[in-house]
Amino acid sequence: MTTLQLDHVSRWFGNVVAVNDITMTVGPGVTGLLGPNGAGKSTLLNMMGGFLAPSTGTVTLDGKAVWRNEEIYRQIGVVPEREAMYDFLTGREFVVANAELHGLGPKAAARALATVEMEYAQDRKISTYSKGMRQRVKMASALVHDPSLLLLDEPFNGMDPRQRMQLMELLRRMGDEGRTVLFSSHILEEVEQLARHIEVIVAGRHAASGDFRRIRRLMTDRPHRYLVRSSDDRALAAALIADPSTSGIEVDHTEGALRVQAVDFARFTTLLPRVARDHGIRLLTVSPSDESLESVFSYLVAA
Amino acid sequence: MYDPTVARLTYRALLGRRRALILGALPLLLIVIAAVVRGLAGADDQTAADLLGGLGLATMVPIIGVIAGTGAIGPEIDDGSVVYLLSKPLKRPTIIFTKLIVAIAVTMVFSALPTLIAGLILNGNGQQVAVAYTVAALVASIAYAALFLLLGTVSRHAVVFGLVYALVWEALFGSLVPGARTLSVQQWSLAVAHKVSGDQTLITSDVGLTTATVLLVAVTVGATWYAGQKLRSLTLAGEE
Asked: One of this protein's Pfam families, by short name (chain B) (predicted)?
């Protein structure tokens, strides 16, 4: 059981406050650190990983200070966002080096490479790797010493859907094993799929914390707007408005589409395809029109 | 104190293809010039001392020192890959000390060895000139490596500052301003060379051997200690 504790942590760079008085506890399981780009997620992660001193406040891991404490890395595995990683080595050489730096041998490296399923390319130079392969080798280097806390900065960036799914599965497994896994992301869906517990950071502030469903409700208990195109817009509009999950529909002639306002997000998303099928209507476009993360966040911050 | 894995990573980064070419070019140039001079002018002690002192010790050794010293850590800090060293239960001074050893070894191989070869070509080690300058290059390698490793740890523009120090301070100021010569790795190592050489008038230094030794040790130890401290509080800025 490893618990990371942030106590009134702030960090400023010159006049710019990157992280503003954040207190949080990150325990076992997968936690998502969610926030728009530039919210201070990386700064926060750097402080959690002991790579940056808080301007004020403390970061501790099971009561031990993280900053200027090399011994803490026996427990922490770090997957940085930055790409650079000794590109002149092969994947295996890189992970073996990481194992050795922990006082471990090639066996630990082989195990970690197997965990991320990178054995097939382990003897290729890292410089030839794709983004997803790099990410997995980074992951292997972070797992080599079997850490109880895993910190990942935007781990899904640039990964294709299949790689994303594999990594999610891996992280989920790590969390189920009782490790403390914290990853940052600016993409709501990623966090939704992976983390039960989330911490939301907006503009350096701790905007929300807790169970994902509760926060999701905060985010979703507001009208959602969708842009829908179908083979028969008017028939679809008539069928949708009959259900209480839809609060308003506008026929947008210039766009040639329906603008649907839904109040019950979950119900609406199951209703729409069913209604379409029942009425023999083909759905051509369904796109959330105000689902951009920033609007969700501003809503959250206001709440 | 010495970590073989850190050393291996540093060697491979330093001796990567492009950097190795730069590291190899200057020594090769010195040896070629030595061969040409020997061929045209024949063996002459004074010429040997001038060439080894002017081109070898004053120019080549500090430049090699800059490349090896800053290159042993600078690029890793620049591109952020140093995080893979920092996120390990390794004492920061161990990382610095190991990188210093590597930087010293590389500087020695690429500066002292060619100095010896060039010296042997020039006058067949007459008056101990070749050996004296080789010893000077060895001694200077240690101090330069430590100095430029520190520079690589604290500055993103380490190569530029290093070259300015090596070329402007050591070469230009050193020959114009008498006071500057006392604070010059080159002069300190010359003091050692002076002691080694057979003809005491051939190689001279503005600094006494004792002062030189004390300063060499002080600079090397001080720079290494400070670099370790700087690495302990090295901040990895996010990309935000």
From this structure: ABC2_membrane_2
